[in-house]
Amino acid sequence: MRTQIRIVAGSLRGRKLTCTVDANLRPTPQRVREALFSILGNAVPERPFIDIFAGTGVIGLEAVSRGASSVLFVERDFRLIADLERHIDEFDLGETARIARTDVYRWIERWEPPNEPVTLFLSPPFRDYEQRLDELLSAIAQLQERVRPGSVIVVQAESKATLDNLPARPTWDERRYGRNVLLIWVKETPD
Questions:
Q1: How many helices (H) and strands (E) does the chain have?
Q2: CA 154, CA 7: separation in Å to the nearest integer?
């Protein structure tokens, strides 16, 4: 089914993405996006933003709209990438946006973080919480270990997902919006 998703705020405010959604692709609802960027606040402007399991790319595009210095979309599905490339062209973001066309788990294994704080958003397919949970938790732990202090990692899940075993679980801030859950982790500066 083709649908339109509106960018909520910033320089691209009101622009619409036209994309195909199905049972496996559920774009982050507008209310959750508004809450997410309100929570992130200063962790977006003038910082690199990485939209992992990018899907429609609406989160990364919203980050650029709100002043992220760059955005990297990590996505494997060629149909989603085609839509994303079209949106990057339409919004004239060629200087700011890049796409890594690859399997997310392999990308995380090889990723070298920048030497500055970065904001990472992960919205894994809901089936990964059931079928690839150990691999997902391991990938999150690798990201936590590698990012620089001040970096933020956000994981979006559905309320029924089992996330008790997230690495450093007590240090994650959890916010619920209907069936959507945002888990936010900030890498502290070592004392």
A1: 6, 9
A2: 19
C-alpha 76/C-alpha 68 separation (Å) is: 23
CATH architecture of 2-186: 3-Layer(aba) Sandwich (3.40)
Q: Which residue has the higher pLDDT, 178 or 28?
A: 178
Tens digit of each residue's pLDDT (9 = 90 or more) over 125-142: 888 988 999 999 999 999
**Alpha carbons 134 and 147: distance in angstroms, whole number:** 20
Contacts of residue 142, Cβ cutoff 8 Å, sequence gap at least 6: 108, 109
**Region of residue 69 (phi > 0: left; psi between -120 and 50: alpha; otherwise: beta):** alpha
Percent of the chain with pLDDT over 90: 67
